[in-house]
Amino acid sequence: MGLLTLAQVSQDELRHEILHTWETARETWHIPIHLGPIDISIDKSVWFLFIGTALTFLILFVGSRILSTRPGAYQVIVEELYGFGRSFGGQVGEEGKKWFPYTLSLFVFILVLNLIGLIPTSYPVTANISFTIVLALMTFILTQYEGFRRNGPVRYLKSFAPPGLPAKPLMVPLMTFLEILQEFTKPLTLGLRLYANILAGHLIIFVFLGLILYFGLSGVGAIVPLVSVPLAVVFYAFEIFVAVLQAYIFAILTQVYIEQAMFREDH
Amino acid sequence: MVEMVAQLDPTGIFDIPNTRLIFWEVVAFLILLFLLIRYVFPPIRKQIQDRQRAIEESIDEAERTRREAHELLAEYRRQIDEARGEARQILDESRKQGEAQRERAKKEAREEADKIIERARNEIGREREAALRGVRQEVADMVVVASERVLKRSIERDDHDRLISDALDSLESDVATSGVGDGRGGR
Question: Could you give phi then psi for residue A31, rounded to 5 degrees?
């Protein structure tokens, strides 16, 4: 075993090893910028946000510039991606299709950030709750904008009370309150779902690998890597699937929420 | 407040509000949206639509070509059938013509042969006639000479002729009765 012998770490050290990505992000590659009282410094998370944004743009931009009538593999992928995004539209009504460029961009953006986050020593931007909540907030703003714009303010607000309620004086305010509350929980769950899924995936992998550090390689600890490394690999592969799935869920739910608001009166 | 949250969450896992990330996220995402919707999606959409149109046109074209090919095939089949029929007709006709020609030739040959036979028969008849006449004359002359010699006198012309005739007739009848056997034996 000689060289492979690893000193057991304390629980504090282990915790740091597992969480180092998040703990060190604020200080890594830090460029301090302040906009008045607001701290808009560029740190590791922002760098990876930039990388992801640029990559999203480049993937699609290159795909849009090498178009030919006889498509190569890359063009097929980009076109399939576009066609996939187009299929998001029209979940509730045909008119909702006009929002698919937004949800398609959202899908590719989140997918790229999810996948970049899986690269070791990178920063998973989508495992940051500030990021996901703000994206969900954008969905919320667009949803309410479309709801008010298409239905008109009065009709839209009235639609929060479902028709045919018994005991109207009591039920109408109650149901309206619940429905409006739901309008706010939608973006909250949207943001939390993406954040929690990606974060959990990363933490599980780190925890499995952290077990090796915790047990060391002496004695019983020698078999820990044999279990935890394959398990970490399996979870890593599963995370790739989750990355696609969560990007899809975020995008499709955004589309559905917007369209539901658009056609609220009709349903 | 940021410091307060940072104290609550030293790990950075529940990183809210991360003003840095939020600010740059909004900026980056809006720029990304603008660029994608303005410069990236339209050419892709156009390309897909163009290809769709091209495919539809190709399908229509193929359909048209197929129909044309079918029509051409039917036309050729019809032409071949016609040609075959015509050939059969020509063959039949020529066969019939040949048959007729042969019949005619046969008939002509038969007629010719008949004519030749007829002519020959006539010729034979005439020759026989002439021969008979010659023989008769000869015999008459010989009889006259012989008679004159025997009788040594001249006979009146009329009696002379009558006598000859009588003699000849008797001779002829003799020849006829005995000459049949001779004639058969001579052939």
Answer: -120, 105
B108 found inside a domain: yes
Out of B12, B36, B54, the one facing A23 most closely (by C-beta) is B12
**Best residue of B18, B19, B50 to probe chain A, by most A CBs closer than 10 Å:** B18
The pLDDT > 70 percentage for chain A reads: 96
DSSP secondary structure, A16-53, as one string: HHHHHHHHHTTTTT-B--EETTEE--B-HHHHHHHHHH
Under an 8 A CB cutoff, do B47 and A125 touch? Answer: no
How many domains is chain B partitioned into structurally?
A: 1
Best mutation target among A131, A194, A198, A206 (most B Cβ atoms within 10 Å) is A131
- Residue B63 within any structural domain of the chain: yes
Say if B161 falls within a structural domain. yes
Structure confidence by residue, pLDDT tens digits, A156-202? 888 888 777 787 788 888 888 998 999 999 999 999 999 999 999 99
ipTM for the assembly: 0.88
pLDDT at B17 over 90: no
Q: Is B1 on the interface with A (CB under 8 A)?
A: no
Query: A93 φ, ψ to 5°?
Result: -150, 155
- pTM of the full structure: 0.72
Using an 8 Å CB-CB cutoff, list chain B residues near A128. Answer: 15, 18, 21
> B165: domain range?
2-176
* Pairwise CA distance, residues A250 & A106, whole Å: 8
DSSP string, A169-211: HHHHHHHHHHHHHHHHHHHHHHHHHHHHHHHHHHHHHHHHHHH
Token output for A29: 């590659």
Q: Which chain B residues have a beta carbon less than 8 Å from that of A69?
A: 50-51, 54
8 Å CB contact of A35 and B23: yes
Q: How far is it, in rounded angstroms, from Cα A172 to Cα A250? A: 31
